[in-house]
Write a structure and sequence with these properties.
The complex is a heterodimer of chains A (479) and B (980). With 479 residues, chain A is of the alpha/beta class. Chain A is built from 13 helices and 17 strands. Chain B has 39 helices and 12 strands. Classes of the chains: A alpha/beta (479), B mainly alpha (980). Chains A and B meet through helix 2, helix 8, helix 9 and helix 12 of A and helix 1, helix 3, strand 7, helix 33 and helix 34 of B.
Amino acid sequence: MLSDVDSHSQLYDRRRFLLQAGGGLAGTAVSALLHDEQLHAAGASHAARFDLTPKQPHFEPRARSVIFIFLGGGPSQMDLFDPKPALNRLDGTDAPESVMALNLDEKTLLKGSPFRFAKHGQSGMQFSELLPHLGGVADDLTLVRSLHTFRNVHGQGINLFNTGFFLSGYPSLGAWVTYGLGSENQNLPAYIAIPGPGRDPRGGARLWNSAWLPPLYQGTRMAAEGLPVFDLKRSATISARQQRQNLDLTARLNRLHLASHPGSPELETRIMNYEMAVRMQLATTEQVDITQETAATQQAYGLDSKNEKLAAYGRRCLLARRLIEGGVRFVHLFAENQVWDHHQDLTTLLPQRAKEVDQPIAALIADLKQRGLLDSTLVVIGGEFGRMPYLQNGDGRDHNPHGFSIVMAGGGLRRGLIYGATDELGYAAVKDKVSVHDLHATLLHLVGLDVKHLKYPHQGRQESIVGVEKVRIVKELFA
Amino acid sequence: MRIRNESINLSTFCLFSRLGICYCIATSGLKELVYVVCILFFTCAPLVQGVQAAERSQEQAFSKHDSEILFVRRIGPLLREKCLGCHGSDPDEIEGSLDVRSLKALKNGGDSGEPAIIPGKPEQSPLYLAATRVSNDWSEMPPKEAEQLTKQQLTWLRDWITSGAVWPDAPRRKEIHQDYEEKWSAEDGVPVKTSGGLSSDWTNRKYDSAGLWAYQPVRKPKVKHVGRSAIDLLIENVMPRGLVVASRADRRTLIRRATYDLTGLPPTPQEVHNFLTSPRPDNEAFSEVIDRLLKSPHYGERMAQHWLDVTRYADSSGFANDYERGNAWRYRDYVVRSFNEDKPYDQFVREQIAGDEIDSSNPELLVATGFLRMGPWELTGMEVARVARQRFLDDVTNSVGETFLGHSLQCARCHDHKFDPIPTSDYYSIQAVFATTQLSERQAAFMPHENTSGFDEKATLQQRKQDYEATLAQLDDVLLKNAEAWFADREFLSTKAWNQALTQAKQGRNNGVFYTARSILLKQGVPEDEFPPKHVGFTPQQFGLERVARKGLERLAWEMDRYRPFALAVYNGHTKNVRAVSSPVRIPNNRMEGELEHSCILTGGDPFAPGQRVSPGTLSVINDQVPHKIPIAIEGRRTHFANWVVDPKNPLTTRVIVNRIWQWHFGEGIARNANNFGSTGKRPTHPELLDWLAATFVEDCWSIKAMHRRIMKSDAYCRSTLHSESEKVPESDPIGIRYAVFKPRRLSAEELRDSMLMVTGELNSKLGGIPCRPEINQEVALQPRQVMGTFAAAWTPNPLPDQRNRRSIYVLKLRGLMDPMLETFNLPAPDFSCERRESSTVTPQVFTLFNSQNTYSRALALANRVLKESSDDHEALVDCFNLILSREPRGDELDEFMRHWQEIETMLPKKAITPQSQPLSVLREAIEENTGEKFSFEEQLYSNIDYVPDLLPSDVNRHVRALADVCLVILNSNEFVYVY
């Protein structure tokens, strides 16, 4: 889509700087031309610039921003989203041969779900009793029950789900979206990652990294408690007035330097960044101030809950809404570590995990809707894989890459739709299967990006989030 | 438009266009291929017309002769490929009665009754209209969208009809074929001999010869240099006419440029002064500077940084555990030493690929093989061992390809290479070289030239170890008590066997008694319900503490290896059957235990889908030039492979390294994808120069320092970044590849940090040794970092300034925890080989450089230093400029900065605010994985007990603190951040 990054040769390329920064010609044609030049001219010093100004999508977007809620560990589909009466009936019997245990030594007895399912809303979407609040907004949700993946260990599965590749070191989905679309608000980070509460997710900062995309597209880590962004505030030893004076002197020194090195967009950008930083310092501090919300709103998200984890998660969801409202392109929410990984004691542990997120996520969806933001915001909720229909460790389930569910909501989706199905045991997706790559391509499509064109040259290859995989845009999900 | 016209041979292009043939060179995906073709065609059409207008009008552009040639070359095959299936191959089943097997049949047309083509009138020919897919009258052909004609093919069809739709008979077709075979073959591409692909189509496919440049033998161009460097002559040979080069840079600029390039540090004011005042001619004085810098021990550090970028150096293993690689630092220092010694590059390569085979008794050579271990790797019990082994083999195969041969080989893992002449069998043949290579932390005695100081820091690790052991001992007591309670609840059970096992377990040990007793009974076959279960009676807190202690000890074992005489290395042998690797691996007594791997092509890259067997081999595309003799014995494969790599006739190896060295000076290589010399990488801008450098490099006995001298003494390297007619340069050199001016660069992350430490006088310039831990953003340092089953230890800075203020190349590099300051300034993650640093300009860099505690500390130290070393305030300020910018203040600068200093001083409180100090412990809270309940523990940060801060604001007076603000401003200036 765009040409390769280039560093110091940019200093000499004012012409192209103006083309891109001016925006007038910065549409597809110019991008294609740059691309063409880069491919053709032997060793061309192509000097595309990267910035966060809004970019022209490839086609009319159905959503403008994304909230990607990642529940690491592998939430159990048959205990939350995908009722399996047959499995319940066969509880305790030998699993059929078609159900392959991941660990071949394991005795495979089927395990029914200990939780009741109920229909919700006009759509009749079924959720287990662990998700009453989500049930309350069922008619605004789109449920996909036919996800599948090809990695069955956490680290690799988590990488795949968040970056499109199972090894570390690839740009996250949020970085790709930001690369493709830029940002609506230049005073806030374009892509924000909110880990926790508690420990970072398995995989840590790499899950919101830009990898070899320009660092501009990297997720900014934001804390829901304490100072939101590293080094956002000036050092304690420097007062506001002092900082202003220092900034002014820096600007004067840099302008003087620019005068003797004219036509250097990078030097100019660096000067502008200092002013931008000051604005970002103010805007971000303002935008993350959830005390500005009414008590009713805070309660809806569960901020008053005695359950600390619930309240902390509610804070994250509320923060996500405020950031989206402020024009942030992509908010990446995480769960602690991989707490959705239930190899044992599922009957006691899963309800705890579900309780911590059910109310906050449902409140987020209702709140977005009430503010008219749900039409332009795409919400995705899911983990890296699902769980097995057979019993493990007395009361647990093993990882299952063959079939799992995700919940989506908002921008451009058919509301109340249940798409795809697993077999009667919930073991494998059998109808309208959706791979993780399909999911990524579909999400990009919803925000107006064509995965076939959202590419970036890396070491001579045109990379994309789906690599060389064939993908299907799941248009059946669209409204 | 102008850009492209220049880069393409005009006459060839016109001819192609006349036939409607446009060639697409260098694309990296099918999508782009189509894209580029279209753009090329349409943008160039007016040009063709213009050029030919004088000769003939467009209608006359195609003769009957053109038409019959176009038929043989394009239309015949096109009809066969796109139409014949339904329209003629089965004469009994011809769709719509339209037969495409002859001109007559086409003219007759099908069911519609209209002729399919009207010669001379494409716009009225249904065949053409149907193919355009935009006609209202004719349905789209071919029916499947995926098979639709490209614009290029449509153009051929149109041109053929326009030119009269000549359909030569068979003898004439044969004649045309014979006449044009050679020409077309050159246009279509050339066949390339390889060991052969999975299909004959692949084996016989043709390549655009331009994409094969890297496989051609290196030919040293003859250059008549009369007192000029060959480098300059080769650059000038292809300099666009009228492009005037910039003048020579001034001495101040040059010494800064050279010093940063060769050492990654700024020149000292004294060095600048000496050079500026040297009475010798410019080039001689500069030569002296180069020689001095090449002798500096910091030269090796700078070059090692480049090399470690390529080889992906890190001190940890990545993936879920991110275990520390305690011995990796010895490889890092080996690289620094090798550059400082100017080790011939061929030897450097041999040692890294096969050091252990060359001389396993030489620790240096064992350490060198750390190269093969640089990729992220682990084997947890959760993964199938064969899959993890394959990950290593894939990693090392690709790494060798990228690093030494400029070829990312991974593309040939699942199939024959899509673009390059690299069959998948070559990939697995190269992989077979490593099939007997086994990973090990091998014994390798410390050598006198290694820096082994600072090992006493392990005392703090010992403290942690004792803590963990104490926790486990306490928990053992808990379990023993709980066991009693467990039996008390089960009076029907006998405690006899248990008590006997306990007695036995207690012999010679005083911890882990409970688990030892359990395993004794398990071994005896006692039913599990007759003795207490593991973790009996644990509370969530105890569950959590047990896991933290157990995993903590496991992680410490890797860290403790740092101080022991072992090397991150390899040995040759069979592949042992191992389920998990959770501690350093030593060489087994019997290296032949386990499976001898027989390498196969893995279908689709799947380790469980072995295909055809392969023997150890090389890149077959150049085997004619560089034959190899790789044995199939367990030992020696890598040595022979390495010999093949560094054979002077290997056209890849020498070009790849001289191109890297060039890039280390000019910011960009002559071929701009230093890791990709295949057809998808960019072509060399100066192929002759590249070959001259490669050939000369071998003549110079593979000396890298000699290459630096040659490059740096060239006029091209010494040019100014400023040009007297700068606006004219892009006209002649729109994409900046002509070396008419020198291109400035932003300092790399490490240079930025190291320079700040250097100008403040805080830098400890000692070479090598165990990794250091500088202060990083405290939130990042203390954040809970999740690794498999527990938390990784918090980042604690070294206690003493001298220990932590070392060059950035020595900073502990954990894959899971990057210093955010370095990361913001484009430190590459060590997951991939980094062929070239990016240097972005983004807002968070301001937060890092302007707001962070770290930069402020540097500014304060600098203020303190200059005030101490100077006699008055003016001199102090001048010193700041000299230290940071290698120049004195100009014009009003001195006054302005003095004023700023004074103003800030009035704003500052008398008493300094002291920033927060290092905590001694950090509370960790988590959900315990067995119980799902919360548990917490306090992580003790022992090394912070002895922490001595850098200079604090409270250590100095207000005058110094105010000057710190001035220093902060200069450290944030563009002039400091860029090298010109």
